[in-house]
Design goal:
- The protein has 17 helices and six strands.
- It is mostly helical.
- The chain starts with a helix and ends in a 17-residue tail after the last strand.
- A two-stranded antiparallel ribbon has the order 1-2. The chain has a two-stranded antiparallel ribbon with strand order 3-4. A two-stranded parallel ribbon has the order 5-6.
- It is globular and about 60 Å long.
- The longest helix is centred in the first third of the chain and has 25 residues.
- Helix 10 packs antiparallel against helix 11.
- Helices cover 59% and strands 4% of the residues.
């Protein structure tokens, strides 16, 4: 059955690679894709993690050293197609890892495969594959690998997986301290304590390094109230339907997700939109946690897997966050792509305005390609699909 899951994941990756290329040629990618391509190109060819959008090393913005894993690929092909391929592979591969986790904890073959299918076609996961590139795309795969190591009570593989996950972003350390403590109390004292301690050391070390260099990580402002209660409620329903609400069967254990929800619901995002939106990279740890919770429940209630697959398919057809939705269609290629792609292959200097972020994302492999106005709210935001 794992071959079927792997084949489905490969088909998903191929489909979204093609869809993302269409989006790229229409210049619908934005700041994030440009930031990561330029950061990785600078690392590959100059040793610096600087990019012109953030105006400093990306590692001063986020603790994302996991990005070094794809530097050799960018060095070989310093274009957006490399990031798009990595993004599609990471998201698709996480479904195979979820299947492996489900089998590890005793879920039967067919329910485990249906769960992986439900996860892969859910609006959230399709949104991850169709949205901007982010280091957060490493999170689902690494979370599932960590869960496998923990389920097998493998001490060293647990620490290795946890350390890799800690290299994605600085907020992961806080979550792993929380789950490490919970694991020490209710699962395995040695494993949980080691993960919590490792996460605490990473958090302290990263913030100490930033302080020495007079820097601070980029984090949203947080308040004491939920700013978008209706949208957040709709978001919770949207992410639980593809799992047939299985995580709720965990009862009080579902409360372990509260810190992840708080990060999404209490953030006062500077761009004026709720962070809790299906398909955004901010939500990737929560979706992975929901999938793990669903797998745990389906071990004893395998019939929920059939409901999950059916409901996820329904959501994909009618509530998808990508172009694969009734009434939407592919982009029309932008004539400016050819010029931006030509600039990406040169060392010529160029400066882009915020409204030209799609062209800058294509050209950003050229470390002399600058962009202004990053961080300021845009006058308009292009949608993730065509409505024309």
């Amino acid at each position: 059955m794992i071959r079927v899951v792997a084949l489905g994941a490969a088909a998903f990756a191929a489909l979204y690679f093609a869809l993302d290329l269409n989006k790229l040629h229409a210049l619908y990618y934005g700041f994030d894709n440009g930031i990561f391509l330029q950061t990785l190109s600078n690392i590959a060819f100059h040793g610096s993690a600087f990019n012109w959008a953030e105006g400093r090393s990306h590692f001063y913005v986020h603790d994302s050293w996991i990005l070094y894993a794809i530097v050799p690929l960018v060095r070989a092909w310093p274009y957006q197609e490399t990031l798009i391929a990595v993004q599609a592979a990471l998201i698709a591969g996480s479904a195979v890892a979820l299947y492996a986790f489900a089998r590890t904890i005793g879920v039967r073959e067919h329910p485990a495969a249906l769960l992986a299918f439900a996860y892969l076609i859910s609006p959230s996961v399709q949104g991850f594959a169709y949205n901007e590139f982010s280091e957060g795309h490493f999170e689902p795969l690494l979370i599932f690998l960590l869960a496998i190591a923990v389920a097998r009570r493998s001490f060293w593989w647990t620490l290795i997986a946890a350390q890799l996950l800690l290299g994605v972003k600085e907020d992961v350390a806080l979550f792993l301290v929380w789950f490490g403590i919970a694991g020490a109390l209710w699962y395995d004292r040695r494993l949980g304590g080691a993960v919590a301690a490792l996460a605490a050391v990473n958090a302290i070390a990263y913030n100490a390094i930033l302080a020495v260099h007079g820097q601070h990580a980029s984090v949203p402002h947080y308040g004491a109230r939920v700013l978008y209660p209706l949208q957040d409620t709709a978001f919770l329903i949207e992410i639980l339907v593809p799992f047939a609400f299985a995580p709720l069967w965990l009862r009080w254990r579902a409360l372990l997700a509260v810190p992840l929800l708080a990060e999404l619901f209490l953030a006062m995002n500077r761009d004026g939109f709720p962070m809790a939106r299906a398909g955004t990279h901010y939500t990737e740890p929560l979706i992975a946690l929901c999938a793990i919770g669903a797998a745990v429940v389906m071990r004893d209630r395998p019939q929920l897997a059939r409901w999950a697959a059916a409901l996820s398919l329904l959501m994909a057809l009618f509530f998808n966050t990508t172009v694969l939705h009734f009434g939407r269609h592919l982009y029309t290629a932008d004539a400016g792509y050819a010029q931006a792609r030509k600039l990406a292959s040169s060392n010529a200097g160029a400066t882009f305005a915020p409204e030209q972020q799609g062209a800058w994302a294509v050209a950003a492999g050229n470390v002399q390609a600058r962009i202004t106005g990053f961080g300021a709210p845009l006058r308009s935001e292009r949608p993730a699909w065509n409505k024309e």
